Amino acid sequence: MKNFVAYLHWRGMIHDMVPGVEEHLNSGMVTGYIGFDPSAPSLHLGNLVTLMLLKHFQEAGHKPVVVVGGATAMIGDPSWRAQERMLLSEEEIRYNEACIGQQLKQFLDFSNGNNKAVLLNNLDWLKDFSFLPFLRDVGKHIPVGYMLSKDSVKKRLEKGISYTEFAYQLLQGFDFYYLYTNQGVTLQMGGADQWGNLTTGIELIRKKAQGQAFAITSPLLTRADGSKFGKTATGTNIWLDPLKTSPYALYQFLLNCTDGEAEKLIKIFSFCSKEELETLIVAHCAKPETRLLQQTVAKIVTTMVHSEEACRKAMACSAILFGNASSVEALYALDEADLLTVCAAIAKITIARTVWDTVDSVMSLLSMATEGMITASKSDAKRMINARGIMVNKTLVTDPYQKPTIPLLHGRYLLVQKGKKNYYLIIVE
C-alpha cells in the first residue's frame, strides 16, 4: 500500500486537505467516496479528474465508494455557479442516473478484492427523510454563520441564492454522515469547488457521531478563460459519452493543449511511474515540435474513456487532416459517420449531382461549381494546381485539366485541401 498523499502530491492532484489525512491513509485500508450529481446524462472531462482520484485511491489499496446524487440533483449545487441552475424533472434525473452509473463502472473495479468499488445512490437514504426531522437531526448542528462563510454561498449572496441551494451543503454533509455510520466511510474527496460541502460533512460527523473524518480536494480542470468544466455550464463541454463528444473530438482537444497543460494532464490521467514520466518530459522538451506529451496524453485518455479501437480511429482521423498523402487509405477506410466527424469543423459546399456529372475538369470544379469558395476563378484554380497546392481526397492534383475522376467518398463526398491548412468538404446531392 503506497503513501497515497505523497503519490497525489507529485501528480499535482491535491488542492487542499484537512490535517491528519496522510496519517489516516497510511494506517491501513481506508474507505473513501466521491459523489456525482446526475445533472446531465454524461460525465465530462472535469469529472474525469475526480474519477482518477478514485482510480489512484483504489490502486493504492483503498476502498472507493461512488455516490450518484439522485436526491441532491433535485436541488442543485450552487458551487462555482453565477446563477441558480434549472431544476430537472424526476424523469430526467432517473435517466441521467442510469447513464452515469454505466459510465462509472468502466473506470473502477467493482468485482474483485476486499477493496472492490461500491456504487450507491443518495436517493435511497434521503427520499423518506421528511422536512421536520431533517431540521431537527441535521439543521440544528450546523450554524447559519458557518454556512454563510462557505465560498459557494458567499459568491452568490450578492446576486441571490435560494434557500433550496443554500441548503445543498446540509444534504451533502448528511451524505457523508450517513456513509460514515453505515458504510465505514472516513474520507470524502472531490474537486476544489467542493471544499465547503466536504467540511460541512466533517463537522456533522464530529457533532452527531463524535467521530473524526477527513477530506481531500483536487484542482479543478478549467478552460482557457478560467471557467470550470461542468455538466450544466455554458460553452462547449468535453463529454465522456461518445455520442456527445466523439473520440476524435476528445483526442483532438487533448492534442491541441499547451505543453504546460499536457505535462499537468499526463500526471493526472496516466499510471506511468515518476521515472517514466520524467523520461517522457525530457524527450518532449528536446523536440517540442513533435508534441510527444500531447500525443501521449491524448492516446491515454481516449483509450481509457473509449477503447483502443476508438483511439486508433481517432488517430487515423487526425492524420487525415493533419498528416500527409500517406493517409489516402485511412480516408477511404472511414465510415460515413467518422468522415463527417473529421469534417465537422470545415467548410461544407453542396453541389447538385447534375452539376457534378457535367464538370469537365478539377479546375472548373474548384471555381465554377463551388461559386468561388475554394478558388476565385479558373485561372486561380490553375495557378494553385500548378503550384502543387490542391489535393482532392488526399491525392495531389497535378493537371488543371484533369477530369474529376477521383472516386467520391461514400458516393457523395470530396475532401479538398488548398495549401497546408485549408479544407473543404464538397457534398454531391
List the helices and strands and how they pair.
Elements: H1 4-10, E1 16-17, H2 21-26, E2 31-36, H3 45-59, E3 63-68, H4 90-104, E4 118-121, H5 123-126, H6 131-137, H7 144-148, H8 151-157, H9 163-166, H10 168-183, E5 187-191, H11 195-208, E6 214-218, H12 247-255, H13 259-269, H14 274-286, H15 292-305, H16 308-322, H17 328-333, H18 336-342, E7 347-351, H19 353-358, H20 362-369, H21 378-386, E8 390-392, E9 395-396, E10 413-418, E11 422-428
Parallel strand pairs: 2-3, 2-5, 3-4, 5-6, 7-11
Antiparallel strand pairs: 1-6, 8-9, 8-10, 10-11
Helix pairs in contact: 10-11, 12-15, 12-16, 13-15, 15-16, 20-21
Summarize this structure briefly.
The chain is an alpha/beta fold and 429 residues long. The protein has three domains: 4-218, 3-Layer(aba) Sandwich (Rossmann fold), CATH 3.40.50; 247-322, Tyrosyl-Transfer RNA Synthetase (Orthogonal Bundle), CATH 1.10.240.10; 347-428, RNA-binding S4 domain (Structural Genomics Hypothetical 15.5 Kd Protein In mrcA-pckA Intergenic Region, Chain A), CATH 3.10.290.10.
Question: What would your notes on this structure say?
Answer:
Catalyzes the attachment of tyrosine to tRNA(Tyr) in a two-step reaction: tyrosine is first activated by ATP to form Tyr-AMP and then transferred to the acceptor end of tRNA(Tyr). A motif ('HIGH' region) lies at residues 38-47. The protein is an alpha/beta fold. It folds into three domains: 4-218, HUPs (Rossmann fold, 3-Layer(aba) Sandwich); 247-322, Tyrosyl-Transfer RNA Synthetase, CATH 1.10.240; 347-428, Roll (Structural Genomics Hypothetical 15.5 Kd Protein In mrcA-pckA Intergenic Region, Chain A), CATH 3.10.290. It contains 21 helices and eleven strands. It has helices spanning 4-10, 21-26, 45-59, 90-104, 123-126, 131-137, 144-148, 151-157, 163-166, 168-183, 195-208, 247-255, 259-269, 274-286, 292-305, 308-322, 328-333, 336-342, 353-358, 362-369, 378-386, and strands spanning 16-17, 31-36, 63-68, 118-121, 187-191, 214-218, 347-351, 390-392, 395-396, 413-418, 422-428. The strands form two sheets. The chain has a six-stranded mixed beta sheet, sandwiched between helices. Strands 7-11-10-8-9 form a five-stranded mixed beta sheet. Helix 11 links the parallel strand 5 and strand 6 (214-218). Helix 13 (259-269) packs parallel to helix 15 (292-305) and helix 15 (292-305) packs across helix 16 (308-322). It is elongated and about 85 Å long. The chain starts with a helix and ends with a strand. The model has no long low-confidence stretch (mean pLDDT 89).
